[in-house]
Amino acid sequence: MTRYDHPDAVLLTEQVQQEYVKRYGGPDATAMDADHFDGPQGQFMVGYLDGAPVVTGGWRGQDASPEGFEDGDAEVKRMYVVPQARGRGFARRMLAALEAGAAAAGRTRMVLETGQMQPEAIALYASCGYTPVAKFGHYKDSPLSVCLGKSLRAPAEAAVPA
């Protein structure tokens, strides 16, 4: 785990914000604070390749709110892979690690907001079992917003006849 305000996390967060500027014309305006990712109600991670930070992601606990969250939600934030490391499975591994951390913390659903200008992100999430959910958060009224979710609960075991 890494703090959201760690220099490597800050570096990659600045890069993802520039990605948003290119794709949407401005940075993500969602309120973010390093404390949002402190355990046990959150987690932030940076992954490295040959000593260099190449992938980042975090989750922060959310509960029922006017913004559209449900009790037990873990909201994915700042998933990003540097361009030179894309296509190697880093995002998929980061997402799996975030899901495991959120489930271990007792969160029951992983949710995220992305945008239509990020088709590769949408494809990744769909391939990992994410499906559309009711819109939530800062961009819930944006026509470009795509909100996805996935249950973190283990499938109910089949009842064994006595």
Summarize this structure as a short list of keywords or feature phrases.
six-stranded mixed beta sheet; single chain; GNAT_dom; 6 strands; alpha+beta; Acyl_CoA_acyltransferase; 162 residues; Aminopeptidase; 3 helices; Acetyltransferase (GNAT) family protein; globular
SS summary, helix count: 3
Going by CATH, what is the homologous superfamily?
A: Gcn5-related N-acetyltransferase (GNAT)
At the third CATH level, what is the topology name?
Aminopeptidase
Low-confidence stretches: none
Quaternary organisation of the protein chains: single chain
| Portion in strands | 25-35%
**Judging by the overall fold, what is the CATH architecture?**
3-Layer(aba) Sandwich
**What is the H/E string?**
HEEEHEHEE
| Straight-line distance between termini | 45 Å
Shape: globular
Gyration radius, rounded: 16 Å
Protein model, in words:
The protein is α+β, with helices and mostly antiparallel strands and 162 residues long. The chain has one domain (7-151): Aminopeptidase (3-Layer(aba) Sandwich), CATH 3.40.630.30. It contains three helices and six strands; from the N terminus they run αβββαβαββ. It has helices spanning 7-24, 90-104, 119-127, and strands at residues 42-49, 52-62, 73-81, 109-115, 131-132, 145-151. A six-stranded mixed sheet has the order 1-2-3-4-6-5, with helices on both faces. Strand 3 (73-81), helix 2 and strand 4 (109-115) form a beta-alpha-beta unit. The protein is globular, with a radius of gyration of 16 Å. The N and C termini lie far apart (45 Å).
